[in-house]
Write a structure and sequence with these properties.
CATH superfamily of the largest domain in chain A: P-loop containing nucleotide triphosphate hydrolases
Mean pLDDT of chain B: 80
Number of helices of chain B: 17
Number of domains of chain B: 2
Strand order of the largest sheet of chain B: 2-3-1-4-5
Order of helices and strands of chain A: EEEHEHEHHHEHEHEEHEEEHEH
Mean pLDDT of chain A: 87
Oligomer: heterodimer
Largest sheet of chain B: 5 strands, mixed
Structural class of chain A: alpha/beta
Number of strands of chain B: 5
Radius of gyration of chain A: 23 Å
Shape of chain A: elongated
Low-confidence stretches of chain A: none
Chain lengths: 298, 403
C-alpha cells in the first residue's frame, strides 16, 4: 500500500491551472521530494493532499483512504506560511495543537519537553511565542508537526529561514524519523536538500509534473552519455569522443551515439593510458532542473 | 475529546480571560450599583431651599387677592407696574408678573425677571398656577379646588378577548425592561461576534489557520469558534441578569416607584434567551464569513458595519414600534432575521405578539442561521488561506456555485 496516492489532480484559479493533471505515489517509509521553482504548484498540491483545498478533479488517497478525522491525526503538516498564537506560551501552544491531533495534555507535555530539550529550547518553555526569535518559533512549529508521532509527515519548504545550526538539527530529525519508519514528503526549491535526503522525487513546473522517479533513475535518464576520467598524462585523440572538458581535476569525455562507456574503457586501456578514475558522468539535480525548466520555457 | 469541543473550550477560555471581556462584564453591574448608591445618597445632599422668595404681581383684573403665600413663595400685590418694577430694581422682590385685564379670556400673563433663564422655575410656576386657580375657584370647597389642580390620575387595564385582565399591561415599566435587555443583547452579541472577527483576522495574519485546517475541517473550525465565543457571550448575559436581579432589589429602596414594579416574566425570559441565541448565532456566522474574506482584522471590522447597522435599526425606530406594534412595517421587521431580535424584544414589552408571528420569525431565523452556516463553511474553505487580497462579489458567488 502506498502512503499517498495522487491521481490526476487538477486545480484552476480563474483561467490559470495551478496544478494540472499531476499524479504520483509515495511509498511507505521513504523521503519523497517535491521540487520545482517558486509558483510551480507545490504548495497547492500539498494543500490538496491535506484536504485544505479541494481539487477540481482527480482524487487523493492518504494511507489507502480519503482523508478523514482519523487519518488527519496520523499526519504532521508544516505549512510554508508559518505562524503561531503570539500571546500563548511555548508549552501551551504545543499542548493545544497536540490536543487537536488527539494527544492528551500529560503526554503532549512529556513529548514536548523531550523535543524541546533536543532542540536546546527547554529553558524557553514558559515564554510567549512573541518573545522567541524567528528561527526558534520555526523549530517550535516543527515540534508541533511531529508531537503526535505521525506516520506521514509533510514539510513545505522546511529549511527556509533556518540558520545552519537549526538546518542541521532539522536534517538529523528528518533522518531519525525515516529510521523510525515514517514517511516524509518535503517540498523545496533547493536541489541540494533533495540530493542529500530524498529517495524519490517529483518535479513540478507550471503546474505540470515534469520529472518523477527515484533520484538514481532521474539522474540516469538525464545522463548525457559522458564519462569522467582521471588519468596520468594527456589523453590525446580518442575514437568516439566528441568533446573533452576539464571537470574538477578530471576530464569529462562526451561520447558519440555509437560509443558506450565500456568501449571507451577498452580503447583507453589499449592506448596504454593509466586510468586512476573512471565513472559515468551524471548531472547534478541542479543541472537537470535548469535543463528541464529551461526546456519548458522555450 | 471531540475536536469541536476542544475548539469550543479553547475559544471560550481565551475569551473569558481577556481583560476587555472581564472589564465589560463587570462594568455594567458596577455602573448600575453606583447609580443606585447615588440615588440613596444624593437626595440627602441636595438642600431644599428654605428661604422665602418674594414675587410681586400686578392685578389688572381685580380678582386675585386670596392665598398669597404658597410654601416658600410669597406673592406681593403692587398697584401699578411701575411700582413693581421699582421694587424689582431695588431687589425687594426677585420677579413680578402682570395679570392683564383680558386674562380671563386669554389665559396669558406677563412675567418679568432680572435673571436670564431657560424656563420659569417649577416652584414659581406651580405657585403662580395654584395662586391663579385658588382665586378663580373662590367659594368652592377645598376638595374641589384640589381636584381641579390635579383632575385626572389614569390607571388603565388591558383586557383580553375574554374580558379578563391581560398578563401584559404595557406602560412605561413594561418598556424599560425590554429596552435595557435590548441594549445588553446588542452589547453581548457585538462583543462576542466582534471577538470572532478579530480572532479570525489574527489567525489569518499570524498564519495559524493552515495548521488548524490540517487538523480540523472548516466546519469544525466554524462551529467551534461560534459556539465557544457564544458560550462566553452567554456567560456575560447571565452575569448581567443575575446581578440585575440583586440590583433591582437594592434599587427598589431608592428608586422604588419606577423599578419596584419591574418584573421579568417567564415569557419574556424565554423569548429573550431564544432571541439572544439565534441573534448571536446569526451575527457570529456573518462575522465569520466577513472575517474569512477580509485579509486583516481591521478590514474585517470595517466591513462588519454593513451587518451591524440593520441590527440596530429597530432601536432608532423604537417609538414607531411602540406606537404601531401591530402594523405591517413592524411585522416585516419581525420577520427580517437581522432586525427580528430587537424588534421582538421591544414589541414583547408593549403587546402580546401573536404566536404565528413568533413562529414565522423564529423559523426564518433558524433557517437563515443554518443556510449561512453552510455558505460560510464554503467561504472558509476558499478564502481562509487567501492572504493579502479581498475577493470581489463575483468571485464569492462563483465559489459558492463551485463548492
Amino acid at each position: 500500500m502506498f502512503s499517498v496516492e495522487v491521481n490526476h489532480i487538477l486545480k484552476t484559479y480563474g483561467k490559470r491551472a495551478a496544478v494540472n493533471d499531476v499524479s504520483f505515489n509515495v511509498n511507505q517509509g521513504e523521503i519523497f521530494g517535491l521540487i520545482g521553482p517558486n509558483g510551480a504548484g507545490k504548495t497547492t498540491t500539498i494543500r490538496m493532499m491535506m484536504d485544505i483545498i479541494k481539487p477540481d478533479s482527480g482524487d487523493i488517497k492518504i494511507m489507502g483512504e480519503k482523508l478523514n478525522d482519523n487519518s488527519k491525526n496520523k499526519i504532521g503538516y508544516l505549512p510554508e506560511e508559518r505562524g503561531l498564537y503570539k500571546k500563548m506560551t511555548v508549552m501551551d501552544t504545543i499542548i493545544y495543537f497536540a490536543s487537536l491531533k488527539g494527544i492528551d495534555a500529560p503526554l503532549a507535555r512529556q513529548r514536548g519537553e523531550e523535543l524541546l530539550k533536543r532542540a536546546d529550547l527547554l529553558p524557553h518553555r514558559n515564554k510567549r511565542i512573541e518573545e522567541l526569535s524567528r528561527g526558534m518559533s520555526q523549530i517550535i512549529q516543527v515540534i508541533i508537526t511531529v508531537i503526535h508521532e505521525p506516520d506521514l509527515i509533510i514539510l513545505d519548504e522546511p529549511f527556509s529561514g533556518l540558520d545552519p545550526v537549526n538546518t542541521q538539527l532539522l536534517k538529523d530529525l528528518i533522518r531519525d524519523l525515516k529510521k523510525k519508519g515514517k514517511t516524509i514528503i518535503m517540498s523545496t526549491h533547493l536541489m541540494n536538500d533533495i540530493e542529500e535526503l530524498c529517495d524519490r522525487l517529483l518535479m513540478i513546473n507550471k503546474g505540470r509534473a515534469v520529472l518523477y522517479g527515484s533520484l538514481a533513475e532521474v539522474k540516469s535518464n538525464y545522463r548525457n552519455n559522458a564519462v569522467l576520467v582521471e588519468a596520468a598524462g594527456e589523453l590525446g585523440n580518442i575514437e568516439g569522443v566528441t568533446a573533452q572538458t576539464p571537470h574538477n581535476g578530471a576530464v569529462e569525455l562526451k561520447l558519440d551515439a555509437k560509443t558506450t562507456p565500456q568501449m571507451l574503457l577498452e580503447r583507453l586501456v589499449k592506448k596504454g593510458i593509466v586510468v586512476n578514475r573512471f565513472e559515468l558522468s551524471t548531472p547534478s539535480l541542479t543541472e537537470i532542473f535548469i535543463k528541464v525548466v529551461g526546456d519548458e520555457h522555450e | 475529546m471531540n475536536k469541536t469541543l476542544l475548539l469550543i473550550k479553547h475559544e471560550f477560555i481565551g475569551t473569558v480571560r481577556r481583560k476587555a471581556f472581564i472589564i465589560l462584564t463587570l462594568a455594567f453591574p458596577l455602573i448600575a450599583l453606583l447609580g443606585i448608591l447615588a440615588g440613596q445618597v444624593l437626595p440627602g445632599m441636595i438642600k431644599t431651599t428654605t428661604t422665602v422668595e418674594k414675587v410681586g404681581y400686578v392685578d389688572q383684573v381685580g380678582l386675585f387677592n386670596q392665598t398669597t403665600a404658597e410654601n416658600n413663595i410669597h406673592l406681593i400685590l403692587y398697584s401699578t407696574e411701575d411700582a413693581a418694577k421699582t421694587a424689582l430694581e431695588q431687589k425687594d422682590i426677585s420677579e413680578y408678573f402682570v395679570i392683564p385685564a383680558n386674562y380671563i379670556k386669554t389665559g396669558s400673563i406677563q412675567r418679568y425677571t432680572l435673571t436670564t433663564e431657560i424656563a420659569p422655575g417649577s416652584a414659581v410656576q406651580s405657585a403662580i398656577s395654584d395662586f391663579l386657580l385658588n382665586n378663580l375657584l373662590q367659594g368652592n370647597s377645598p376638595d374641589i379646588i384640589a381636584r381641579a389642580k390635579n383632575p385626572v390620575n389614569i390607571s388603565s387595564t388591558t383586557l383580553t378577548a375574554g374580558g379578563t385582565p391581560a398578563s401584559n399591561q404595557g406602560g412605561f415599566t413594561a418598556i424599560i425592561l425590554p429596552y435595557i435587555f435590548c441594549i445588553l443583547l446588542l452589547l453581548a452579541i457585538f462583543t462576542s461576534s466582534g471577538y470572532l472577527l478579530q480572532g479570525l483576522g489574527e489567525e489569518k495574519e499570524n498564519r495559524v489557520m493552515e495548521i488548524l485546517l490540517s487538523s480540523i475541517s472548516p466546519r469544525q473550525l466554524l462551529a467551534g469558534k461560534v459556539l465557544g465565543l457564544g458560550a462566553a457571550g452567554l456567560v456575560q448575559i447571565v452575569v448581567w441578569l443575575i446581578s440585575a436581579n440583586f440590583l433591582l432589589r437594592m434599587a427598589s429602596a431608592s428608586w422604588g416607584s419606577v423599578l419596584g414594579s419591574l418584573q421579568i416574566t417567564p415569557e419574556f425570559l424565554i423569548l429573550g434567551i431564544v432571541y439572544f441565541i439565534l441573534g448571536y448565532l446569526l451575527m457570529a456566522i456573518l462575522m465569520a464569513g466577513v472575517g474569512s474574506i477580509s485579509p486583516t482584522a481591521r478590514e474585517g471590522q470595517q466591513m462588519s458595519v454593513i451587518f451591524i447597522m440593520p441590527v440596530i435599526i429597530p432601536i432608532y425606530f423604537i417609538t414607531l414600534i411602540l406606537e404601531n406594534s401591530d402594523s405591517v412595517a413592524v411585522r416585516i421587521l419581525t420577520f427580517i432575521p437581522l432586525t427580528a431580535p430587537i424588534t421582538v424584544m421591544v414589541r414583547s414589552g408593549i403587546s402580546v405578539i401573536p404566536i404565528w408571528e413568533l413562529a414565522v420569525s423564529i423559523g426564518i431565523l433558524i433557517l437563515s442561521v443554518w443556510g449561512l452556516f453552510v455558505l460560510t463553511t464554503k467561504l472558509f474553505r476558499t478564502y481562509l488561506l487567501m492572504y493579502g487580497k479581498r475577493p470581489d462579489l463575483r468571485e464569492i458567488v462563483r465559489s459558492f456555485r463551485e463548492s
